Amino acid sequence: MIGKPKHKKPKGKKRDSDNRTAASAHSESNNETRESNQKPTPHWHRQFSRTCLFVCYFGKSLRNPDNLPSYLIFAATVALAIFAYNAWIEATHGTDALQTQLNILRDEQRPWIEVADAIPQASLRFSDAGMPGTTIRLTITNVGKAPALNVNFVYVLTLLRTDETEKTQCKSQINFFVTLFPSRSEIEDISAGADKNELNQIKSVDGKKMIFPHVVGCVSYRINGDKTWHHSPFDFEIQHWVMRTPNDDCSHAQCLSNRIRKWIYADEQDIPATEIALAVSFNQSGFGPD
Hints:
The protein has 290 residues and is an alpha+beta fold. It is built from 5 helices and 12 strands. It has a domain at 113-280: Immunoglobulins (Immunoglobulin-like). Strand 8 and strand 9 (226-243) form a beta hairpin. The mean pLDDT is 76.
């Protein structure tokens, strides 16, 4: 029995299929390469495209006569808001300027207290424990244009002066009240001594303790019709100055042109009043009269 011959597939078709597969793989590879080499769209380009679309849409909408009343109302509302904002700014500036003028006028007509002078009245004495003490004369003057009511003051002799010392004194008050009229002065002699605890906190150098005594205080007073307490702090450093050469025209310690400063140490001999100078110290934190 003669069988049917086997059908053989032509070899050319197989090669064509393999070629198509290879071409497809090569094309996909090229596409992936192009996608990997393609840079992302910059942010400004995307933003510019959105802006162009919005402008085109807005221009098209504006050309429609039915939308014109809505745009006119919107423009009028924006213009009114800008006008109201500018008017508010001008009114605010005017109010601030008026308030500044009122404050200046009030300050010119109110009392102002200052400690105009401080003069040593006794020597700087040292106790057996080395604590210094002295007496000074303060001149408290009203340099304002209205009476100062309930004028009182407190003070302390400190060896550890800080910017907070004046603030602490201004928080205290005593039961001594006097009315001080404009251009009038009140002279007070005050005696003060240092605290032993402060002296113990100072370190010794070569067996000696260098000290910088300060007389710190505050004058408190009120203004007529104002319940607020106003303050004038003061701070005087006690310094030791000795004369270089004898000079009758410059014999007091306040005349420093003929004198040289010496440091003050605890446990030393008393310093006479003629060798004491009271130097004004300024608060570095900006705290001052109010």
